[in-house]
Amino acid sequence: MTILLNKPVTPCLKTLTKYLSQVNESGWYTNFGPLHQELTYKLEEYLSVKNLLLVNNGTIALHVAYRALNVKNAICTPFSYAATASSLAWEKIPTTFVDIDSNSFNLSPKLIEKKIKSTPSIDSIVATHVYGNPCDVDEFSKLQRQYNLKIIFDGAHAFKVDCGKKSISSYGDASTLSFHATKVFHTIEGGAIIFRKKENFERANKIINFGLEPNGKIRKVGINAKLNEYQCAVGLTLLDSIDNILSHRVELFNLYKIHLSDYVQFPIWHESASYNGAYFPIILENEENKKRIKKALQNSGIPSREYFSPSLNKIFNPNDECPISEDISSRVLCLPIHFYLTTNQVLKIVDVIKKEKQ
Q1: Crossing angle, helix 287-299 and helix 323-331, to 10 degrees?
Q2: Which of 170, 172, 218, 312 lies 20 to 30 A from 141 at CA?
Q3: 17-39 burial, b for 16+ CB within 10 Å, e for fewer?
């Protein structure tokens, strides 16, 4: 069996067809239809959150969050997927990149505070829970209170991750999710924003529908960012099996860790957080070793990904120095992990790395 880096979960056609038949019978294909409302309710219940707004992709979720919260000047992580930073650039929001913590690979609260003290115009922080590993949310909350900041968490990797007894998606003024086909839960394309405050949710709800007020008038600029009924049908279908999906991914994640702990480094996980098996990153000693491992895997028919590379500050603001992020970006590889990957395939991947490291 071919080893794939990732493989989207296929919805059960029997269940999916039932939902699609409902859509066809009602003739309500988009614009906050019945399946949209059902998926919203079920996700809020499953994730233990309130004020969840479905949107048509994870990148637009960030755009809408910035607009709803009126972000003016932001600190952003340099170690994330490009969308985290490109969404700020697209909105023409002045952005400063601050370096990451060398253990978690998330934004460093200490370095954020230092930057805020020297740049008082900063009003917001955009931080990614990298690989699903939660940021130090308690320290972020302290910063928010002390400096009156808005906090947006990019939670694209963190579906169903809990921190203590709370969903990681419940932290921040807004927390975004991606439901892209490659994520642990998907609607083919799609996403969501979870807002702390109801008024921000209501503002965003107008933004994603062209800025329309309940009376049909437009007072502020909006966009079309609604999730359609067919994609909601996919989400509802996959929710039926999401616990099995997550359980298997976590099993594979733990299997990798057990067998590779003496050979490579991993991010240090938040001590109070759960896992969802979204990614399995390994850190090699240097860039040369990374290239060597990647080639050895490739020669065995095993794909890997330099995720994330390069460090985003190098693309969007080269004047911002982020040496830790730049270093980690040069040494990171993400190994295959998905619902269809088998334990035997993981062991094969492990063996290739072990042999190359010996």
Answers
A1: 30
A2: 312
A3: eebbebbeeeeeebebbebbebb
pLDDT at 149 over 80: yes
Q: Would you state the structure tokens that stand for residue 309, as one six-digit string?
A: 């590379």
Of 129, 152, 125, the closest CA to residue 64 belongs to 152
**Confidence at residue 112, expressed as pLDDT on a 0 to 100 scale:** 98
List the Cα angle 30/35/39 in 5-degree steps. Answer: 120
Terminal-residue alpha carbon distance, the chain: 27
Backbone angles phi, psi at 148, to 5 degrees: 55, 55
**336 φ/ψ angles, rounded to the nearest 5 degrees:** -60, 135
Burial 180-193, CB ≥16 within 10 A → b, else e: beebbbbbebbbbb
Structure tokens at 271: 């001590």
Nearest to 65 by CA among 207, 220, 227: 207
What distance in Å separates the CA atoms of residue 101 and residue 325, rounded to the nearest whole number? Answer: 8
So what's the pLDDT on residue 150?
Answer: 98
Question: Which CA distances in Å does 20 have to 34, 35, 38, 233?
Answer: 12, 10, 14, 6
Please count the residues of the chain.
358
**For 216, phi and psi rounded to 5 degrees?**
90, -5
Residues near 112 by beta carbon (within 8 Å), at least 6 away in sequence: 75, 98, 125, 143
- Check residue 358 and give its pLDDT: 80
Q: Which two tokens stand for residue 175?
A: 């927390």
